[in-house]
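hey team, just a heads up i'm posting the complex here instead of the shared drive bc the drive is being weird again. everything in one block, sequence lines first with there labels, then the predicted structure for the whole assembly after. its four chains so it's a bit long, scroll down
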Amino acid sequence: MDVYHAIADANRRRLLELLHQHEHSVQQLMPHFDVTVGAVSQHLKILLENKLVSRRKRGRFRFYRATPAALKEVYEWTEQYRRFWGSRLDRLGEYLDDSE
Amino acid sequence: MDVYHAIADANRRRLLELLHQHEHSVQQLMPHFDVTVGAVSQHLKILLENKLVSRRKRGRFRFYRATPAALKEVYEWTEQYRRFWGSRLDRLGEYLDDSE
DNA sequence: GTGTTATTTTAGTGACTGCTATAATATAAT
DNA sequence: ATTATATTATAGCAGTCACTAAAATAACAC
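-- predicted structure starts here --
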C-alpha cells in the first residue's frame, strides 16, 4: 500500500491529525474513534509502514507521533494543479460538461 | 468514492496528468495505458464523478480535460504538515522507532 | 505467582476495487 | 442500409479493504 492509499482512509487521516498535535498511546486515541482497538492498531500499522508515524515504547504503552515527511510526495503532486484553484478555469468544466 | 480515493489509483493520477496538458479523447489516451478501453472509461467516470475532469462531445468522440479544482482539498490537507519536510523533525522517527 | 491492562496478531466476513469480456449505444463512412 | 469506429454499461471474477471477535504477547499490580 502506497502513501496515496494510506491517506485515502478518513480514520487514518484523523489519526495523523491527532498524532500531529502530540504523541498518543493507542488507548489515548481510542475515544476519538468508533472502531475497535484492533482496527486502530491496524491503521497505525499501515501508517507506520508508510513512515507517516513513528512510535516509542514506554512500559506497556506505545506512543505514536506523526512524522509525515512522506506526505511531501502528495503535496508536490497536487501542487502542480494549483493554478486551477480560484481561477476561472476551475469553472470551465461546468460549461463543457455534456454528460447528457 | 471521495477525492482521496479517486487519486489513490496510479492510473487515475496518470490520466489527470495527461488531461492536464491538453484534452484527449479516450482513444488518444489508450496508448498510455496497459488496460482495456473499458477500464480507462471506468476510471474517467470516477474522475468525472469527483469533478476532477470534464468532457465535451464532438461527433463520436468525447474529449476529456482535467479540471482539478477538487484537488484543493487534498493540497490543503497535506499543506498543514509542510513544516516537517526538510527539517530535522522528519528524521526524528528513525531515532524513536523501537519496532523491535 | 495470579490477574489486569495495553497492544498486536490472526481468522473470518461483507463490501468494494480494478480488471476483463461482452453487450449496448451512438455517430460516421461507405 | 450496412459496416466500422468510439464510447459507455453490464456482469462476473480475483484480490483487497476495513472491520470485528478472539487469541496471543507483553508488562504492570497485587
